[in-house]
Design brief:
This protein is of the alpha+beta class. It folds into three domains: 4-60; 65-112; 115-176, Nucleotide Exchange Factor Grpe, Chain A, domain 2, CATH 2.30.22.10. It has three helices and eight strands. The strands form three sheets. A three-stranded antiparallel β-sheet has the order 3-6-7. It has a three-stranded mixed β-sheet with strand order 4-8-5, with no helix packed on it. α2 (65-87) runs antiparallel to α3 (91-111).
Length: 176
């Protein structure tokens, strides 16, 4: 017996066997099941994406928390130093206290990957130094950094701020 028979007199009706009808119904049920699974997976994916975005925003919002928590003892010691300075009898003890706080702060910065750029005596490097001007001199080779008005800093291998420097320049000869 043929699986399907086309009716010439009424093209809107097609005759199919019960076996083919059963297979069609099974395939339709499987399609509905797959569509449901696809919708659930799509919703799960969307929820995961939203959760990851929220976690990323939270991480960025509080990224500095750990570093700032490490900085609190430095701030505490600085405040204690200011209080002590108001009652101190000699400037040396105040200066010593602030040197201690500076050492603590420098260690904190170093532990967090910050490195200062001490440029005096070095050759000028435009990648590390910002030349504020030149000083004519015969005491230093041309291109040598004579003085630094502001320290530069690198974090790991990336420049955060160039050192502000004055660079040695050979005197211009006045031949007229």
């Amino acid at each position: 017996m043929s699986e399907q028979i086309y009716n010439d007199q009424n093209p809107a009706f097609v005759l199919i066997s019960s076996e083919l009808l059963k297979k069609t119904e099974e395939m339709a049920a499987k399609a509905v099941e797959l569509q449901d699974r696809l919708l659930r997976m799509s919703a799960d994916w969307d929820n995961s994406r939203k959760r990851m975005q929220k976690e990323k925003e939270e991480a960025l919002k509080y990224a500095a928390e750990g570093v700032l928590e490490e900085l609190l003892p430095v701030i505490d010691n600085f405040e204690l130093g200011l209080q002590s300075a108001q009652n101190a009898q000699d400037a040396k003890s105040v200066a010593y206290g602030f040197q201690m706080v500076q050492m603590q702060l420098n260690q904190f910065l170093k532990d967090n990957g910050l490195e200062s750029i001490d440029a005096v005596g070095q050759l000028f490097d435009p990648h590390l130094h910002d030349a504020l001007g030149h000083h004519e001199t015969t005491d230093h080779p041309e291109g040598t950094i004579m003085s630094q008005t502001r320290k530069g800093y690198k974090i790991k291998d990336r420049l955060m701020r160039p050192a502000a420097v004055f660079v040695a320049k050979a005197p211009e000869s006045n031949t007229e």
